[in-house]
Amino acid sequence: MRNLPHDTPLLSPASILSDSWRRSQHYGLARDDDHRPVAGHEQLGESRHRYDWIARYASPLLAQLTPQFRTRAGVLVLSDPGGMVLESTGNSGFLQKAEQLALAPGNVWSEDARGTNAIGTALALGRYCEVSGKEHFLSRHAALFCAAMPVYSPRGELAGVIDISSPASLPWQDATQLLSRAAWQIEQHWVQKQITAGQVLVQLRPQGQPELAPFTHSLIFEDGILQGANSLACRDFGLQPQDFGQRHQDSIFACAMENGALAWMRDTAYQMHIDRAQKRPGVIVPDQRPGKPAEEPTALLAPSGVNLEKTLRVVNAGIALCINGETGCGKEYLGQHLYRQSKWRSGNFVAINCAALPEHLIESELFGYMPGAFTGASSRGYAGKFREANGGMLFLDEIGDMPLALQTRLLRVLQEKRVVPLGGNSAFPVDFSLVCATHRNLVEQVERGLFREDLLYRIQEFTVEIPPLRQWQNKGLFIEQLWSELGAPVRGIRLCQSVVSYLADCPWPGNVRQLLSQLKVLLALSDNGQTVTLCDLPDLPRSAHAPLSVPPTTRTPNETACHAPCINELEAIRISQGNMSEAAKRLGISRSTLYRRLEKQRA
């Protein structure tokens, strides 16, 4: 092994950073290298879609942490398991410099690409890592202080890292505590959202502390078999990814007792919930969790009118399912729900948007390729989505936009259950549940010659129609459950009933996606412990603001002006087509006064 260069920071021989420097040299990097690996826009989009834990489980946390960056130089960076930056946010003054230092989305910070750095080294080690100033292998990063904490999925797999980067002259002294808590919150939220009917959640936490006390150990069991856990539980119980879906809880706790792994419970006064009826460790049934309504998790989809039980039986039988519905109505959400409930859940849920990928990439993404199959192909090859989904569920979104040439190959795979990667001669057997989704009328597509009729019959063995959100029943309950899913209870933020009623009356042409986006905005603008009233609602897009019960006006501007002096609040809103600011002007009052009057009328 070569000696380290003379300007290596003074670290002990056993230091993890010294080992990382040696690995950096082994990768062929030099201190003065100026190569800056950046992923293309398409690759960034695919990685964001594949590693959607950031959008699903980290968004509430990002909104919570953002205020800390207003007065401190630094950025919060989230990456995928390959070290690609997927999101970065923080101090506006430092963000511009951060982009110059390659901390913007798309930049790759794996250890083999940039040498010793917090993101790449934390991924290499699978543990927290700090790298400051000249401890970075590449000289051009010496101006940075970086600290990174890995984030793990509920199946024990490395999902990426959350990182704080700041000027080396202004390091974040509390980075360890902040990132540890942040990673735990993300994992805890992720674990709790995986629980399905029939599963139980084991929680081990400090004596006398509430359920959301920091650093609770969480495990999910179904019929006694391990289905999920956060990284703290994986670490202290010695769990590996291959244990999920296989290990029984009796074996897990027995081995932990024998090996002394549960000593931390005695030393730090931890407690477990006990299900007295079964005498088993620690169970919280999903519909009994504090702060949650008594309905089962399927209640979130129930207002759509979809027969979930019948649809799940179809999926378990291996019948191809096609989900139809307007854009944004929750087709992928339904697919993920069916996957978590089905017999296919021990495999992967692999989703691909056929409309989002360029035509020349769809074939390699679905079928994979052999090493050197084409210019730019990875030297290691790529298995492809079909093989990745083997034993699990393949979700093909916007199937109606798949090119005709690919439809032929897809049909062959579905018939033969075998995949031949690009540049290969051997076929690989595959077995997965196929769920497709589209907002198009596929029968019309067939008539226009844009979709193969034989493929239509193969993917539409059973069809589910998700109606648009405006036709759903119990939208108020649905809104409250979405609000809870976004993490509002963690921050103590609630919606008053008048807000829920008002939002339920809006038509939401963008369906669940539009509603969800507006709820995220509302949550980001709310303070911890706040009760959100009508006065707190931001201006929504006019199309979303107009209540369903108020038809668009047909009056001319002159007619409107003549009637303005004698109209009431609801009439003003109707004339203004739901634009609250405009309605307030017509009444000669402020928007907040208008909201207060409406709230009194609803009371």
From TrEMBL:
CDD domains membership: AAA
Keywords per UniProt: ATP-binding, DNA-binding, Nucleotide-binding, Transcription, Transcription regulation
Gene3D superfamilies linked: 1.10.8.60, 3.30.450.40, Homeodomain-like (1.10.10.60), P-loop containing nucleotide triphosphate hydrolases (3.40.50.300)
A GO term for molecular function: sequence-specific DNA binding
Source superkingdom: Bacteria
GO annotation (BP), single: regulation of DNA-templated transcription
Residue ranges annotated for the Sigma-54 factor interaction domain, each copy included: 313-524
Name the UniProt record assigns to this protein: Sigma-54 factor interaction domain-containing protein
Taxonomic path: Bacteria, Pseudomonadati, Pseudomonadota, Gammaproteobacteria, Enterobacterales
